[in-house]
Design goal:
Elements lengths: L4 H8 L2 H18 L3 H13 L3 H4 L1 H24 L1 H20 L4 H29 L3 H32 L4 H20 L13 H19 L1 H4 L4 H23 L7 H5 L1 H21 L1 H9 L4 H7 L1 H22 L1 H19 L8 H28 L7 H37 L5 H33 L3 H7 L1 H5 L16
Helix pairs in contact: 2-7, 2-8, 2-9, 3-8, 5-6, 5-7, 5-10, 5-20, 6-7, 6-9, 7-20, 8-16, 8-17, 8-19, 10-12, 10-20, 14-18, 14-19, 14-20, 14-21, 15-21, 17-18, 17-19, 18-19, 18-21, 20-21
């Protein structure tokens, strides 16, 4: 079969949409697991009897393993094959989830959460690289990445909704057991649908790169995770962050001379992909301002229960889904990422500024809802185009590690956002209470509201920085077309045969 015939055959193959559904299930499972256990935490703590100081590890154990091993997981997808790593990741994630649901001790729960993170680091890059190499026709690629990007943007909110429903109507353990059902469907579909003829790469694994990169990312995520419980002045915070900086610099230097690098620097050196990773990082940082502090506001100030809190986020989810399809299929081809992504980040900034105006008497309809819809439009205009641009034009043999960089940006952004915003909010609340003695119930409520406002304002700042940086990084459509003639000429070829953009070399 000739190259010109391959796309036509792919376009007529109805299974590719079932592949998209399978990948979507896997991606949703990985993304929502970062937040689904948050609402279940009080019930799990009462059941297993762990302390408030230990509570953070239920979230941190997952984030540490996931964030530090993503580059390795992406490279394994390239070397061993996407189908193999996708199925292994699904089965392993389901097994770890079942182990966590059955946990009879705090230690067993933490081990299971870490194991979930390990297999998520294998699963997430292979899922995105499956999508990258399955959808090569531009129009269909836009729709597929619109779905994937929408899930990446709304997964946290879905996790809150599902976590509230399961905790309130069943038991906290079902926030983990539910993954077994997701994974079972995806395993069966993946086993049937994914290409069995995929060739394994005859490449060696860059072991020094794995050690340096994984250790550096571990230190980065761990350091930021300790900022809230230990404080910014603690050696437990700065020690890992300094070590991470040294290790990641050493990693970058090694990648320049490694014969078969873990992360070819051409992937991140390209301005368009760099802009995409920056947008995903900024979105990851800023989004914690809404998922964390708006959840607090809805529950403590407005008195919502967990289920009502989850439902309250639904308008944002709907806005992301609708906007994601419009942005990837209509506005991205016409305006390009240089206009669309910074605009999306700017809309997210405006939503955060809107939330910073909430007070003790605000209502959902007039206070919370407009900000959620605006944030959904902003995220739908940011995440899908960024993910599509980040993986566009990457050679098939590097699709896994390029996909891993997408998830790495989001994970690191989440870690930074949690640490920085938690610290700023806690400091603001303490200062408010110090200035408004005695600490009556009204003063305590006002202090909490003030801390949320500070967090929302700083989230707006992160989105603003992201908008400015991405506007400078992304090329114009004309400049991109001039620098990447090979990609423009071969866009309809199978992804395995596509060259990387010329500017990336």
């Amino acid at each position: 079969m000739t190259n010109s015939e391959a796309p036509a055959r792919a376009e007529k193959d109805p299974r590719r949409w079932f592949v998209l559904a399978t990948v979507a299930i896997a991606q949703l499972m990985v993304v929502l697991d970062a937040t689904i256990v948050n609402i279940a935490m009080p019930s799990a703590q009462a059941d297993l009897g762990f302390s408030d100081n230990d509570r953070q590890w239920v979230v941190t154990a997952y984030a540490l393993a996931f964030g530090s091993l993503l580059l390795l997981g992406g490279r394994l997808s390239d070397l061993l094959g996407r189908r193999r790593t996708f199925l292994v990741g699904l089965v392993g994630f389901a097994g770890a989830s079942a182990l966590g649901g059955a946990a009879q001790s705090f230690e067993m729960l933490i081990a299971a959460r870490a194991l979930q993170g390990v297999f998520a680091a294998v699963l997430a890059p292979s899922a995105l690289s499956v999508l990258t190499t399955t959808f090569t026709v531009p129009a269909e690629r836009g729709r597929a990445f619109g779905v994937f990007g929408a899930i990446a943007g709304m997964g946290g909110a879905v996790g809150l909704l599902l976590g509230g429903f399961l905790t309130q109507n069943f038991d906290w353990r079902w926030t983990l057991y539910v993954n077994v059902f997701f994974a079972a469907v995806a395993v069966v579909a993946g086993f049937v649908l994914l290409d069995r003829a995929e060739q394994r790469r005859r490449q060696r694994l860059d072991v020094p790169g794995v050690l340096l990169g994984s250790a550096g990312l571990f230190g980065l995520v761990y350091g930021f995770s300790q900022a809230e419980p230990k404080g910014w002045g603690s050696g437990w915070t700065w020690g890992p962050l300094v070590a991470a900086a040294v290790l990641l610099v050493a990693f970058a230097l090694w990648q320049r001379r490694a014969p078969e690098p873990l992360l070819p620097l051409s992937i991140v050196a390209d301005r368009d992909r760099g802009g995409s990773f920056t947008a995903i990082l900024a979105a990851g940082i800023g989004m914690f301002g809404v998922f964390l502090f708006l959840t607090y506001y809805l529950q403590t100030t407005m008195g919502y229960d967990p289920m009502q809190t989850g439902v309250a986020f639904l308008p944002m989810v709907v806005a992301i889904i609708v906007t994601a399809q419009i942005s990837n299929n209509l506005t991205l081809p016409r305006l390009g990422a240089k206009v669309l992504v910074p605009t999306g980040l700017a809309l997210c900034m405006l939503a955060m500024l809107w939330f910073s105006r909430l007070d003790l008497d605000s209502t959902y309809a007039s206070g919370v809802l407009p900000g959620l819809v605006l944030l959904g439009i902003g995220m739908g205009s940011t995440m899908p185009p960024s993910i599509q641009t980040a993986t566009f034009g990457v050679e098939g043999r590097h699709a896994g590690v390029a996909s891993a960089m997408v998830s790495t940006s989001q994970q690191v952004g989440g870690a930074v956002g949690t640490a920085v915003l938690n610290t700023l909010a806690a400091t603001a609340a303490t200062a408010y209470l110090t200035d408004h003695q005695p600490a009556s119930p009204d003063v305590v409520a006002s202090a909490a509201l003030h801390s949320y406002d500070v967090a929302f304002t700083w989230s707006a700042g992160f989105f603003l920085v992201g908008a400015v940086v991405t506007a400078l990084l992304f090329r114009t459509r004309a400049a991109r077309a001039a620098l990447t003639p090979a990609v423009a000429a071969t866009e309809d070829r199978p992804a395995e045969e596509r060259p990387a953009p010329a500017a990336a070399h």
